[in-house]
Amino acid sequence: MFFPGHADQVNSVAFSPDGKILATGGDEAAVRLWSMKAGRPLAIFAGRGDDAGRSVAFSPDGKTMAAASDERTVRVWDVG
């Protein structure tokens, strides 16, 4: 799948527990959510500075998403 909108490489991907949403994290300091059914972007969660989405993961209930960065930080967002 091609991920339009990522300005740089994609480092991490994670499916929501129900498989309906894909999260992608890249070097441009943003995590993007994609609808697997519609094949389109749903949301963009921006980090700060060089805070890149090196690793992304959903909580077991799919309501929360976390993204780790090279800066040794983890950002958590409510997505559900």
- The whole-number mean of residue pLDDT values reads 84
Helical coverage, percent range: under 10%
SSE class:
mainly beta
- What percentage of the residues does DSSP assign to strands (E)? over 45%
Which sequence of SSEs, written as H and E, runs from N to C?
EEEEEEE
How many DSSP helices?
Answer: 0
Termini Cα gap: 24 Å
Beta strand count = 7
- Main sheet? 4 strands, antiparallel
Q: How many individual domains?
A: 1
Shape: globular
- Rg (CA only): 11 Å
The strands making up the biggest β-sheet line up spatially as 1-2-3-4
Low-confidence stretches: none
Structural summary, described in words:
- The protein is globular and about 30 Å long.
- It is built from no helices and 7 strands.
- With 80 residues, the protein is an all-beta fold.
- It has one domain.
Write the layout of secondary structure elements.
Elements: E1 10-15, E2 21-26, E3 30-35, E4 40-46, E5 55-58, E6 64-68, E7 74-78
Antiparallel strand pairs: 1-2, 2-3, 3-4, 5-6, 6-7
Condensed summary:
By secondary structure, this protein is mainly β. It has strands spanning 10-15, 21-26, 30-35, 40-46, 55-58, 64-68, 74-78. The chain has one domain (10-78).
Give me some keywords for this one:
80 residues; mainly beta; 4-stranded antiparallel sheet; 3-stranded antiparallel sheet
